[in-house]
């Protein structure tokens, strides 16, 4: 491949990366010295220029593309001296192979701490994490350690990237330049520090445990010598780590050397994990008929003899202690006592710990953070199975005991910066959304206006207030749900059908207010389903929320949902859309009189506007929810949308559900059919017990192509008279 054009001093090839059929070549001096990144795509044996990406910042650094990395369609571009004070930035782009387009997903910005620290002169990316090095960063805590270096980790959730952690070397010293090179694969990050020990160099391996990146090993060359610069470059695969030492002397010549180490990553499932998967796959399957085994009368997987003579459980009752877990689950999978509803006596039942709280029902303090599971659940509202509930890189114990930040919110003050970013990048107050009191949140100043959140005189100037509509002004779209998840049921997609319209008020493209109109139009379900919505901003950023028209609006209570906020819109769809006399359902049975549902108007005002890419598109994460007799909450979301923290995790992967969190696949069958859909127009739903594919056969092509073909399947009803 050769550079486009003929301009000299472009530094074409300054940094490169490749993944699959996509190759990325940076040219920091290209495009009139602004910098450019060229993406090539392989077609057959030919590599063709696919796109050219240039910086959209007004600050021209001549460093755009100083580092690049691409993986699985995600591209990160480093710009080590962008910004007014050279704090540095990195940009993340996502490739859509169907439309053959690139979309910018995020701008990761340095702050006060990274000024002139070469933030983003080294970058790496995987499908879920972005890694940004700041090799020249000084210790911000006044320890007189200069150029010690640091590395920042960002985690992707859906299309949003948020700061998760800041890594430094346990044995790091002044001048090490930790972070001069970075690489990531799966749950491992390798970081170079080529200036360690008179530039002999070192490389540090980090491993993801839970949501915490822990230092696992430090590589030092066995034949290392000063000025080798071991760690100048690093790479990592599933099995190996390679380290470059470009200044290594071999036979008195500076020929350099490369070291390769075996990583030995354990990827096989344990037998316990296999047993758990097999057991969960057989639970709550209403289609399978029970087969009575005379040696196992209750069908719980334990023999009558073992239950009678060894366990003292009932051979005719699969759940002797009636706690919601079968005797087999308790004995074989979880190690709990089948005769006690609360094995560890922490006031949380075994079922609650297994299904709802992600905790170990045999331990009082599952995550060993000093807080009992009961205290985390009932007092702190933290996750008893995680030492860092909100995934912001700050331990729950540190947030509670030292910082007074909220351990359940990555962004305690709701200003658009995580607590970690405020403390370790910008030195702003994580408990005050507007540190310099200039009436603009810290997040807006950093992420939108490029002004200082600590300088009162550096005040942003808002430019444009706009209004956006979805799907269009005075036009309704449709949400449709099949509520029998994880079973497909009759798949007629009329269990809950709701029309919607959203009006968004934006300031410089940031969403500050939402008015969501929701009107139930069909109910073909006997379950007690409620309608709820989860939006991508923490509860601390909700200024107000109301239900109803302006003249008669009543407050709507926000519910904390981790770093999202949840609202209950309709408690029971039956009450919002009752069936006409003589019929069981509403607007789904043949010859049924039409019922008109009430219009629900939800108005949400935000303290601090939120980037539309983070906030998401209307109707946002709307979903239906119902509660089982044992307390389990069953939620049904649009495909790819995550459940709330209140949803039972027990049902995922059972019956027809093929959820795979590692690929962001949620609420879809093996054939990619959904249980919920958004349709950008008024839609004619099927009648009762008419399979969706009978009325709309093109949906099968749409699903098998993962949404890449037959995108307008909903416009083509097979028989419009039905």
TrEMBL record:
Main location: secreted
Stretch list, region Disordered: 298-324
Molecular-function annotations in GO: calcium ion binding
Residues of the DUF4842 domain: 509-714
InterPro entries, alphabetized: DUF4842, EF_Hand_1_Ca_BS, FG-GAP, Gal_Oxase/kelch_b-propeller, Integrin_alpha_N, LruC_dom, TSP3_bac, TSP_type-3_rpt
Pfam families associated with the record: DUF4842, FG-GAP_2, TSP3_bac
Entry keyword set: Calcium, Secreted, Signal
PANTHER family, A to Z: GAMMA TUBULIN COMPLEX COMPONENT C-TERMINAL DOMAIN-CONTAINING PROTEIN (PTHR36220:SF1), UNNAMED PRODUCT (PTHR36220)
Protein name per UniProt: DUF4842 domain-containing protein
Superkingdom of this protein's organism: Bacteria
Cellular location(s): Secreted
Gene3D superfamilies, per database record: Integrin alpha, N-terminal (2.130.10.130), TSP type-3 repeat (4.10.1080.10)
Keyword GTP-binding: no
């Amino acid at each position: 491949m050769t550079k486009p054009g003929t301009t000299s001093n472009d530094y074409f090839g300054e940094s490169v990366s490749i993944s699959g059929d996509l190759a990325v070549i940076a040219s920091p001096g290209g495009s009139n010295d602004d910098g450019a990144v060229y993406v090539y795509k392989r077609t057959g044996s030919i590599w063709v220029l696919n796109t050219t990406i240039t910086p959209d910042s007004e600050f021209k650094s001549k460093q755009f593309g100083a580092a690049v990395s691409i993986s699985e369609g995600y591209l990160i571009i480093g710009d080590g001296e962008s910004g007014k004070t050279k704090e540095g930035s990195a940009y993340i782009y996502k490739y859509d192979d169907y439309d053959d387009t690139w979309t910018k997903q995020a701008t990761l910005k340095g702050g006060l701490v990274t000024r002139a620290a070469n933030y983003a002169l080294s970058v790496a990316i995987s499908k879920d994490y972005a890694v940004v090095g700041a090799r020249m960063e000084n210790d911000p805590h006044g320890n007189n350690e200069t150029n010690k270096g640091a590395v920042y980790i960002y985690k992707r959730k859906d299309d949003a990237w948020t700061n998760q952690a800041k890594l430094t070397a346990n044995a790091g010293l002044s001048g090490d330049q930790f972070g001069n090179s970075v690489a990531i694969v799966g749950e491992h990050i390798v970081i170079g520090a080529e200036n360690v020990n008179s530039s002999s160099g070192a490389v540090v391996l980090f491993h993801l445990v839970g949501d915490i990146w822990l230092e696992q090993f430090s590589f030092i060359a066995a034949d290392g010598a000063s000025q080798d610069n071991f760690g100048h470059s690093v790479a990592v695969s599933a099995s190996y780590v390679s380290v470059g030492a470009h200044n290594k002397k071999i036979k008195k010549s500076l020929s350099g050397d490369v070291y390769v180490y075996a990583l030995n990553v354990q990827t096989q499932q344990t037998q316990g994990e296999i047993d758990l998967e097999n057991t969960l796959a057989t639970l709550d399957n209403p289609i399978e008929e029970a087969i009575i085994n005379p040696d196992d009368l209750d069908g719980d997987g334990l023999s009558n003899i073992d239950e009678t003579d060894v366990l003292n459980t009932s051979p005719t009752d699969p759940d002797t202690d009636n706690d919601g877990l079968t005797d087999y689950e308790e004995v074989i999978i979880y190690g709990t006592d089948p005769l006690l509803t609360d094995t560890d006596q922490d006031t949380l039942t075994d079922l609650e710990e297994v299904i709802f709280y992600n905790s170990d029902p045999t331990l009082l303090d599952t995550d060993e953070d000093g807080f009992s599971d009961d205290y985390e659940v009932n007092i702190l509202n933290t996750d008893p199975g995680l030492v860092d509930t909100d995934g912001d890189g700050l331990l729950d114990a540190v947030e509670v005991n030292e910082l007074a930040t909220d351990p359940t919110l990555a962004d305690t003050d709701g200003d658009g910066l995580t607590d970690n970013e405020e403390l370790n990048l910008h030195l702003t107050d994580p408990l005050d959304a507007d540190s310099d009191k200039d009436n603009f949140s810290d997040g807006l100043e950093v992420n939108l206006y490029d002004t200082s959140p600590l300088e009162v005189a550096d005040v942003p100037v808002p430019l444009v207030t706009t209004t956006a509509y979805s799907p269009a002004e005075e036009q309704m779209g449709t949400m449709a749900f099949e509520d029998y998840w994880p079973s497909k049921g009759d798949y007629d997609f009329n269990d809950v059908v709701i029309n919607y319209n959203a009006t968004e008020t934006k300031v410089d493209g940031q969403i500050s207010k939402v008015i969501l109109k929701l009107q139930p139009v069909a109910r073909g379900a006997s379950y007690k389903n409620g309608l709820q919505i989860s939006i991508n901003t923490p509860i601390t950023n909700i200024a107000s929320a109301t239900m109803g028209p302006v003249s008669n609006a009543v407050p709507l209570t926000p519910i904390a949902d981790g770093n999202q906020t949840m609202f209950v819109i309709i408690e029971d769809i039956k009450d919002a859309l009752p069936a006409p006399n003589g019929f069981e359902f509403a607007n789904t049975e043949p010859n049924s009189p039409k019922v008109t549902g009430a219009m629900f108007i939800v108005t949400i005002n935000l303290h601090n506007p939120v980037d539309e890419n983070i906030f998401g598109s209307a109707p946002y994460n709307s979903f239906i929810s119902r509660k089982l007799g044992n307390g389990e909450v069953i939620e049904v979301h649009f495909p790819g949308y995550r459940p709330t923290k209140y949803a039972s995790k027990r049902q995922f992967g059972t019956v027809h559900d093929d959820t795979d969190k590692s690929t962001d696949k949620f609420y879809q069958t093996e054939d990619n059919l959904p249980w919920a859909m958004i349709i950008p127009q008024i839609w004619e739903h099927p009648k009762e017990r008419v399979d969706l594919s009978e009325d709309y056969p093109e949906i099968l092509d749409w699903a098998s192509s993962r949404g890449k073909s037959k995108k307008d399947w909903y416009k083509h009803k097979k028989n419009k008279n039905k």
